[in-house]
């Protein structure tokens, strides 16, 4: 009989293991604590389990493996073990690096099980190590982690766990010198663990030969699991890339509200570094530099005083910054080797925030912390860019270029790195000849920006960056579009001013080049940003003398302030392409009605073609003060004909371009016109009209684009990126609605405030009485006056304010009279119809001005299916306006107002 069991020897081994097992249990407990702490520092979410081998399991393995392991209590490597389960495969390597760095590893007992698999195989992927404690390495771990070995956070293990094999054990089994206490550590992903639990042990450790069809099924499952794991990893990496940006776009008010919440939360967890970093990032977006430094100072101070911090600074002080910028990792240098060992990307970011904020607040000592940030993570391109900017601030372009270049080499398609590098290189070389070589990087950076913009991240910076990249690629329309969106997303002029500063520094280089178009494009962007900077400050009453003087210098001075300042200003942008002449001419009656009776200034294209030709033809009534002004290039294309009804302001240059609308707005603002009082009407149009629309929206004007008019106007009306911009009204093709948009309704000089309020309430009560019984759902507009939302109260007041304007459409007006001394005659059917149409137009504009959009009825989302032309409404909906106008004479009579002819 072979393989006889030596019962006595097995009992001796079990007895010996039983005696030593508590030490292994202690070893497991220690390793569990260590890996829990270490993976938390690595910011990796894990599930960690451990165990000392059970006595029955030890006995079974000792019996089955007695020939291979005659002294199992000294020879087994898996008497205790820890399993570290991570979510994604890319998280395995950082943990393996930690194991290799701080433990002794038995190479013979360690392997990457995944490497057993052939190229066509899928399956069990796990990394196994046989480890033991090394006093020197473990002390290094405590030092690097900033842990007190005598403290309670992770008490230092007992000396016995560092013991070597006894002489007797080595002689008895012929074993080489080795640590007595070893542990198996397995690192695997969650799906690999699921595979191991489900199939691996059942197949590869089965006591019988598993049938082939079952093996095929399990291989198919393994392949699906591996594919799922790869997809999960790819997706999560993508999400993480977004999360590490500046965070989601929020208005200034939303940021301040969120900051207040976070600061309240952190009172209950003041040592939470992740939450502190979140607060710092939010404060940075608000340019609250003191809050950033105050929040991060305790962590910075602790790090500076820690053993790790002192060790880092000791090595850092011996290394020249130029060596840190070298692409090669010079590990032959002991100090560079030490810095690489102490690498900490997370704390590098903390130093970046802290140092950058100190620099922004005027403390030049902030640069030291930025240098440390680079020292802690040589691949931190954001820290390199921040360092470059400090030298740029001091006009040290050579030094700035070094850091920008290194950041670019690390992350060639990172928008911020690329932006800084290109700007710096242009200033260094005084030329743009290298642009062609940069095209792949520019296109890659644009895509990165667009990815962030699509999910509302990294704004407005990503928009400024993509605008700059489009500019470099010679795509000015897309560039101006991006810059306009960036301005809209900017709470202050800070980003605008910073971008202006960089672009104006580039202008001499563009002027020295043969790229005339590049120069023109850059000048357009610079002029646009000056207008944006002015209006951002205008909106908060912060116009400085320097800013006012700058605008005056850019102005032609040809708009007479006295003629403009008290006049209604309208801009009409639209198509002038002869190919669409017949289509555009359909808007002639609409424009004639819209501007009938209008007094003020109209700016338009100045030629006889298309929409601007129709504007030129608009008649001026006897009581109208109507001026028509156009900005045109000095040299117009041969096919254009100037309309003789325009006062033309000629600009240097040839061909139509964004230069004309930019100069128009420059002169308007320089003349003291409030951009919020200007209205732009857009019908159809090409690239220049599209820019006119975006320019007006971004500096605060009201813009009406006619739905269905085609090309630029229609594209913007359907573009989600522009559709919800404040000030944009998508107008139905409706004569009275467009007239309501164009004109300003003056406050009534006849209605008293008391009567106005009571009439508004009466109109609402009538609506309530007639609708409550017809609907089960209680919409916001079906509430008592006291509970009615403010915007709906204003809607009723607006309806009353408009009574006089509606009556003017049928040549009537009102006057205050004594009650019971008159009786208002009812309107004719024709008069009711016209009044109802005008009332619907008023309602359209009032709703659109309040941010409503065309769509399925939803009061909360501010969408309505009735924001359409009167002719498109159903008879059921028309009834409400007709009925209100039918009862108007009675309502006015009740409050003592007589309807009289004009």
Give an overview of the whole structure.
It is a single chain. This protein is α/β, with parallel strands linked by helices and 902 residues long. The chain has 4 domains: 228 residues, 2-Layer Sandwich (Beta Polymerase, domain 2), CATH 3.30.460.10; 160 residues, Tetratricopeptide repeat domain (Serine Threonine Protein Phosphatase 5, Tetratricopeptide repeat, Alpha Horseshoe), CATH 1.25.40; 188 residues, Rossmann fold (3-Layer(aba) Sandwich); 149 residues, Globin-like, CATH 1.10.490. Helices cover 56% and strands 10% of the residues. The chain contains 40 helices and 17 strands. β8, α29 and β9 form a beta-alpha-beta unit. The longest helix has 35 residues. The termini are far apart.
What is the fold's blueprint, element by element?
Blueprint: H1 7-41, E1 46-52, H2 55-64, H3 72-75, E2 80-86, H4 92-102, E3 104-105, E4 111-112, E5 126-132, H5 135-145, H6 167-173, E6 183-189, H7 190-204, H8 212-243, H9 252-266, H10 273-285, H11 289-305, H12 307-316, H13 321-325, H14 334-341, H15 345-360, H16 366-376, H17 381-393, H18 397-410, H19 415-429, H20 435-454, H21 461-472, H22 476-489, H23 494-511, H24 516-539, H25 545-554, H26 561-564, E7 569-574, H27 581-585, H28 588-594, E8 600-603, H29 610-617, E9 626-635, E10 647-654, H30 659-670, E11 679-683, H31 687-698, E12 702-706, H32 711-718, H33 720-723, E13 728-731, H34 735-742, H35 753-771, H36 790-801, H37 803-809, E14 812-816, H38 829-849, E15 853-854, E16 863-864, H39 875-886, H40 888-894, E17 897-901
Parallel strand pairs: 2-6, 7-8, 7-11, 8-9, 9-10, 11-12, 12-13, 15-16
Antiparallel strand pairs: 1-2, 3-5, 4-5, 5-6, 14-17
């Amino acid at each position: 009989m072979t393989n006889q069991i030596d019962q006595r020897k097995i009992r001796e081994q079990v007895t010996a293991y039983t005696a030593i097992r508590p030490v292994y249990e202690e070893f497991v407990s220690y390793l569990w604590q260590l890996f829990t702490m270490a993976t938390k520092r690595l910011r990796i979410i894990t599930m960690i389990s451990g165990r000392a081998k059970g006595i029955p399991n030890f006995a079974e393995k000792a019996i089955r493996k007695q020939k291979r392991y005659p002294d199992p209590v000294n020879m087994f490597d898996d008497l205790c073990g820890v399993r570290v389960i991570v979510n994604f495969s890319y998280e395995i390597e950082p943990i393996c690096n930690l194991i290799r760095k701080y433990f002794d590893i038995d190479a013979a007992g360690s392997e990457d099980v995944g490497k057993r698999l052939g190229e066509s195989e899928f399956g069990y992927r796990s990394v196994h190590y046989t480890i033991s404690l090394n006093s020197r390495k473990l002390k290094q771990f405590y030092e690097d982690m900033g842990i007190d070995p005598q403290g309670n956070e992770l008490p230092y293990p007992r000396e016995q766990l560092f013991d070597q094999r006894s002489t007797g054990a080595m002689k008895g089994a012929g074993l080489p010198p080795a640590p007595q206490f070893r542990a198996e550590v397995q690192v695997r992903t969650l799906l690999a663990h699921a595979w191991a639990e489900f199939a691996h042990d059942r197949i590869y450790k089965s006591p019988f030969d598993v049938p082939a069809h079952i093996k095929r099924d399990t291989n198919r499952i393994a392949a699906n699991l591996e594919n799922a794991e790869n997809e999960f990893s790819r997706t999560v990496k993508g999400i993480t890339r977004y999360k590490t940006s500046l965070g989601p776009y929020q208005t200034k008010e939303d940021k301040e509200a969120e900051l207040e919440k976070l600061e309240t939360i952190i009172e209950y967890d003041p040592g939470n570094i992740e939450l502190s970093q979140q607060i710092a990032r939010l404060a940075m977006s608000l340019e609250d530099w003191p809050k950033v430094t105050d929040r991060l100072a305790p962590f910075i101070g602790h790090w500076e005083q820690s053993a790790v911090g002192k060790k880092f600074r000791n090595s850092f002080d011996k290394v020249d910054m130029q060596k840190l910028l070298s692409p090669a990792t010079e590990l032959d240098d002991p100090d560079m080797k030490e810095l690489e060992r102490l690498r900490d990307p997370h704390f590098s970011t903390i130093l970046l925030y802290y140092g950058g904020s100190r620099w922004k607040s005027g403390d030049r000592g902030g640069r030291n912390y930025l240098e440390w940030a680079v020292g802690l993570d040589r691949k931190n391109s954001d820290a390199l860019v921040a360092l470059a900017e400090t030298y740029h601030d001091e006009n040290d372009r050579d030094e700035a270029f070094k850091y920008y270049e290194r950041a670019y080499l690390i992350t060639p398609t990172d928008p911020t790195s690329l932006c800084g590098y290109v700007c710096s290189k242009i200033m260094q070389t005084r030329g743009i000849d290298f642009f062609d070589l940069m095209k792949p990087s520019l296109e890659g950076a644009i895509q990165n920006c667009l990815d962030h913009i699509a999910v509302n991240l990294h704004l407005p910076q990503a928009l400024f960056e993509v605008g700059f990249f489009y500019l470099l690629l010679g795509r000015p329309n897309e560039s101006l579009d991006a810059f306009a969106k960036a301005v809209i997303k900017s709470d202050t002029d800070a980003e605008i001013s910073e971008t202006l500063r960089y672009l104006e520094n580039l202008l001499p280089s563009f002027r020295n080049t043969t790229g005339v178009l590049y120069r023109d494009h850059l000048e357009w962007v610079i002029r646009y940003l000056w207008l944006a900077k002015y209006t951002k400050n205008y909106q908060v009453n912060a116009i400085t003398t320097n800013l006012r003087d700058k605008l005056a210098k850019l102005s032609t001075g040809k708009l007479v302030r006295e003629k403009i300042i008290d006049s209604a200003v309208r801009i009409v942008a639209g198509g002038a392409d002869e190919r669409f002449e017949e289509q555009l001419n359909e808007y002639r009656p609409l424009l004639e009605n819209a501007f009938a009776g209008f007094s003020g200034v109209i700016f338009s294209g100045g030629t006889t073609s298309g929409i601007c030709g129709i504007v030129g033809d608009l008649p001026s009534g006897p009581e109208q003060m109507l001026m028509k002004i156009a900005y045109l290039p000095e040299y117009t294309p041969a096919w254009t004909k100037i309309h003789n009804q325009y006062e033309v302001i000629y600009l240097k240059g040839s061909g139509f371009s964004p230069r004309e609308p930019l100069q128009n707005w420059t002169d308007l603002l320089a003349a003291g016109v409030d951009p919020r009082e200007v209205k732009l009407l857009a019908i159809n149009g090409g690239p220049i009209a599209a820019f006119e629309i975006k320019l007006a929206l971004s500096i605060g004007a009201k813009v009406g684009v006619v739905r269905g008019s085609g090309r630029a106007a229609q594209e913007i009306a359907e573009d989600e990126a522009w559709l919800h911009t404040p000030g944009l009204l998508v107008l139905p093709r409706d004569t009275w609605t467009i007239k309501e948009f164009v004109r300003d309704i003056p406050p009534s000089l006849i209605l008293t405030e008391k009567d106005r309020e009571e009439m508004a309430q009466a109109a609402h009560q009538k609506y309530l009485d007639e609708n409550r019984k017809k609907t089960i759902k209680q919409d916001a507009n079906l509430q008592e006056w006291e509970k009615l939302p403010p915007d709906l109260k204003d809607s009723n007041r607006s309806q009353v304010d408009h009574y006089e304007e509606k009556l003017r459409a049928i040549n009537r007006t009102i006057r205050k009279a004594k009650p019971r001394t008159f009786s208002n005659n009812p309107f004719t059917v024709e008069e009711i119809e016209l009044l109802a149409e005008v009332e619907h137009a008023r309602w359209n504009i009032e709703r659109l001005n309040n941010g409503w959009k065309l769509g399925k009825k939803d009061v909360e989302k501010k969408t309505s299916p009735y924001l359409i032309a009167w002719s498109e409404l159903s008879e059921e909906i028309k009834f409400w306006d007709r009925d209100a106008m039918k009862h108007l004479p009675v309502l006015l009579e009740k409050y003592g107002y007589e309807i009289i002819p004009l």
